[in-house]
């Protein structure tokens, strides 16, 4: 009797993983174009690396080598930054990151900068406007100048009149973190 083919892969836990989506348009040869990769990076949630890109576009076998070459080419052109396990567009921040509050603007609102930022590849660190009202779940003292916070960071649809391009909503204030 013939076996029925499986629709997904079953891991050690017995959970069936979904089959990768093949509804995305692909370039000839199964390797996504530079534009498709950049569009995927903008819409993807969480960690995105070579493996996640290959899975999303259904790249298999020898096409993975071509994908790796395309990603290296994009990194040389400055379209991508990061490691092979975590790719991103230069100048973009992850959705959740650690920020250091550097001061206040003329309106009295807190201004922060990302703790991890590579000025060589990403340019100057962005000034981030910190939301004046922390969420209800926020516990502990309100953050102030010199504090480090874990925050949700979102790009603003258009730059603020003061020049801010990102807005942050604090998740929690980080205690015991060395400043400087």
Summarize the SSE layout with pairings.
Layout: E1 9-10, E2 16-17, H1 34-43, H2 50-57, H3 63-76, E3 81-82, E4 87-88, E5 96-104, E6 110-114, H4 119-122, E7 128-130, E8 148-155, E9 166-174
Parallel strand pairs: 7-9
Antiparallel strand pairs: 1-2, 3-4, 5-6, 5-8, 6-7, 8-9
Explained architecture:
By secondary structure, the protein is of the alpha+beta class. It has 4 helices and 9 strands; from the N terminus they run ββαααββββαβββ. It has a 5-stranded mixed beta barrel. Strands 1-2 form a two-stranded antiparallel sheet. The longest helix is centred in the middle third of the chain and has 14 residues.
How do you describe this structure in short?
With 180 residues, the protein is an alpha+beta fold.
Strand order in space, largest sheet: 5-6-7-9-8
* Sheet with most strands: 5 strands, mixed, barrel
Over the alpha carbons, how many angstroms does the gyration radius reach? 21 Å
Compute the number of strand runs.
9
- Shape annotation: elongated
Q: Helix/strand/pairing class, anyone?
A: alpha+beta
Helix content: 10-25%
Low-confidence stretches: 11-29
* Strand/helix succession: EEHHHEEEEHEEE
- Rounded to the nearest angstrom, the distance between the terminal CA atoms is 68 Å
| Overall pLDDT confidence | 75
Strand coverage percent: 15-25%
Number of helices: 4
Feature tags:
180 residues; 4 helices; elongated; two-stranded antiparallel ribbon; 5-stranded mixed beta barrel; alpha+beta
């Amino acid at each position: 009797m013939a076996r029925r083919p499986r629709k997904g892969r079953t891991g050690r836990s017995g959970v069936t993983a979904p089959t990768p989506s093949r509804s995305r348009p692909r370039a000839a040869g199964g390797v996504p174009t530079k534009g498709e990769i950049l569009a995927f990076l903008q819409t993807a949630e969480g960690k995105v690396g070579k493996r996640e890109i290959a899975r999303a576009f259904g790249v298999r076998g020898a096409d993975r080598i071509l994908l790796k070459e395309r990603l290296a080419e994009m990194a040389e052109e400055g379209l991508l930054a990061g490691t092979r396990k975590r790719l991103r567009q230069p100048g973009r921040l992850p959705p959740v990151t650690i920020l250091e509050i550097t001061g206040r603007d003329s309106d009295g609102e807190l201004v922060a900068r990302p703790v991890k930022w590579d000025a060589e590849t990403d340019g100057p660190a962005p000034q981030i406007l910190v939301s004046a009202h922390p969420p209800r779940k926020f516990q502990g003292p309100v953050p102030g100048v010199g504090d480090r916070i874990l925050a949700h960071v979102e790009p603003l649809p258009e730059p603020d009149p003061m020049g801010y391009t990102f807005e942050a909503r604090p998740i929690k204030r980080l205690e015991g973190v060395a400043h400087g």
